[in-house]
Automatic annotation (TrEMBL):
Binding site for ATP: 6-11
Protein's UniProt name: Glucokinase
Assigned protein family: Belongs to the bacterial glucokinase family.
Recorded superkingdom: Bacteria
Reaction catalysis annotation: D-glucose + ATP = D-glucose 6-phosphate + ADP + H(+)
Record flagged with keyword Kinase: yes
Annotated GO MF terms: ATP binding; D-glucose binding; glucokinase activity
Alphabetical list of InterPro entries matching this protein: ATPase_NBD, Glucokinase
Main localization category: cytoplasm
Keywords (A to Z) from UniProt: ATP-binding, Cytoplasm, Glycolysis, Kinase, Nucleotide-binding, Transferase
Amino acid sequence: MIVLSGDIGGTNTRLRLAKMNEKFQLDEVLCIKKYKGADFSSLAEVLKVFIVESGIEVTSIKSACIAVAGPVKNGEVELTNLPWIVTEEQMKEVLQIEKVKLINDFESIGFGISTLNKEDIYTLQEGDLRSESPISYIGAGTGLGVGICYESNGQTHVFPTEAGHVDFAPVGDDQTALLEFLRKKLRRVSLERVCCGTGLVNIYKYALSNPLPGQNESPEMHLAMYNSKDLGATIAEYAFKHNDPLALRVIDIFIKVYGSSAGNLALSTLPYGGLYIVGGIAPKMLDQLKDGRFMSMFRDKGRLSSLLHNIPVYVSLNPDIGLQGAEQYAFNMNK
């Protein structure tokens, strides 16, 4: 049985056709393609091109699920970074099937966790792994996403949240000063304002305005930031490749906020099924996540610190976890 899955981001649309086995799991990937969204006027147009290029008869596709960057309401979503309104009705018309679904891209990650292999995961803490217990995941990328899921009787149940927009809760004097700095510019400071790609830039602006001795911005970094089209990536480059003191301080604050926030999520959900660090930033900062700062802040919860030592913590290294989650959802539609 063949299913179609997809992941529509702000820049690229990835589509995949796969065959599933009798256990509703992946048997074989038949075709995978990536398209620039700006080259097309609609999802329907992309789907038509993909079907032709795949060489697969459209009538052989039994179900489809596509993950989208945006809130899905009544089978419809208006994308933020593309002039598309994507609907399930479009999908049904092009694919000539009834079993179609649009889901939020971070919801799809919840379904994708069960598809990860050992090589897709780095373990930060073994903890006390328990079956059929809650699983939580938090992912910094363009924004900050948070979700909860659990597996029962072979089924994955996913509960999306908007917990990336909870209040930023600073720990220590430096983070408190960061909060006060951002409060002067923003009506409200959510966690996402600090813990994502643009959050790196906000921390950079704070560090630039409140330098520590020996941590002024270098002329080279100043010029690079002035010319940069991706400020977060430039900050990371100057931290990891050039050991720039200011950039290293930005990363230090970011990692500690990320760890503390993951610990707060663990206290809120008790994810003995595992807490997963997902999103595009985690694999790029794996060395920093591994060096102890993240887990130190994760566990630093006073009287509840011993509990945090028992939560399994993993980093997802698989960039296709969302696409695989959409695919697994499409498989499950045939049960």
